[in-house]
Every structure is written in structure tokens, then in C-alpha cells.
Amino acid sequence: MLTAEIVECRACPRLVEWREQVAREKRAAFRDEEYWGRPVPGFGDPSARVLLLGLAPAAHGGNRTGRVFTGDRSGDWLFAALHRAGFANQPRSEHAGDGLELHDAYVAAAVRCAPPDNKPLPDERDRCFPYLVREMELLARLSVIVVLGGFAYEAAWRVLGTAGHVRPRPRPRFAHGLEVDVGPLTVLGCYHPSQQNTFTGRLTEPMLDAVLHRARDLAGSPST
Fold this sequence. Notes:
Elements lengths: L1 H7 L4 H13 L17 E2 L5 E5 L7 H4 L7 H12 L20 E5 L12 H17 L5 E5 L1 H13 L16 E4 L2 E6 L4 H4 L6 H15 L5
Helix pairs in contact: 4-8, 5-6
């Protein structure tokens, strides 16, 4: 089973050491919680037509909760926007058992372990490629990939090539609002909902909403 393989992965020594160190030392605000401290698989609707691809789990977010984007500020922005666009049944997600359900959407990260300084190395990204390829194969109805940031765009582009999709040349540069067709799929660019972007106004709620509504329209997802 793919999820079990991801959770047991120890292919990147630097990431294994870091994720487990964070899980032992913890952040003071979460000192009474048991951290996940392992690779974080994707989650969502297995019939999803929209995939949202992030960078990696946050040290005290997904690495703590065991679910990507869950329990951190980036996730607060993302899940609120997914709720507004009709992809989520609730606007917040703080832990894996909080009742969040995604409809026609699936969320994953290019790298499955929390990296030091939130900066995975290229070889670490490459070792995770097979997991993303297989996840995309399991998402049989997939038609739209929303890449959250340049790192996710690079990963998605290489994975799409590995999967045999014909990619346009030259490759379009990543930009917020980017829209490019790759075989039967459409890739949409969106700035990552990190605090660095949301606090500075580089990414606003209307900007994020516009990308998700475009994804919904392209995929033919039902509006709510």
C-alpha cells in the first residue's frame, strides 16, 4: 500500500534526523502532544480531479499532526480557501481527526518529510518523485494540478515528464496565475500560502480564491 510505504520511508538521512529531532524536542506550545515525526502521505478525495501540491510538511505542522498543511498557518489559509471554493467541508484543520473532508480535491507535498529551514535538497525531492507519480496514477480522474510555489512547480513538471506527458517547450516560468496544459492535465501556478507571502501581501485571499475557483471551473467540480 502506497501510504504505508511513504510512512516507513527512511531514504534521506538528513530528513530522517531532522524530523525525528523536531518530534523529540517539540515546540513549547505543543510540548504535551505526541509528534508524528515520520513522512507525511497525501490525503483527500480518491476521486479528486484537483491535486494541490505543496513543498513539504512544516516541522510543527504536518510533522506534528501527520497530515500535510494541518496545524500550521499555511494550512489555515489553504483550508479556508478550499472551503470557500467548495472543496472542503470546513474552513480549518488542526489535527488529523478533526472531521475535515475534501471533495474533488487531494493535497500532497513534493517532499514528504519536514526539512531543515523548510528547504529540501534537490536529491531529496528526487527521491520522493516515485511517490508522487504513483499517487497521480491512483487519482484516475485527475485533470488539474495546483502547484503552490516554484519548488512544487519544478517537482510537478519533472513528475509529469516521468509519467510520459508531453510538456511544452520551453517550459513556462513559474508565476502566480500561470496556466499551462500538459497533455490531458492543466497546471495552475499559485504562490505558496506561507507566512512570508501572506504577511507581506504577496498572496491575498482574493488571489488564492481566484486560483481555486479557476481549478474548480477547469475540473468541472460542482460548486457549493
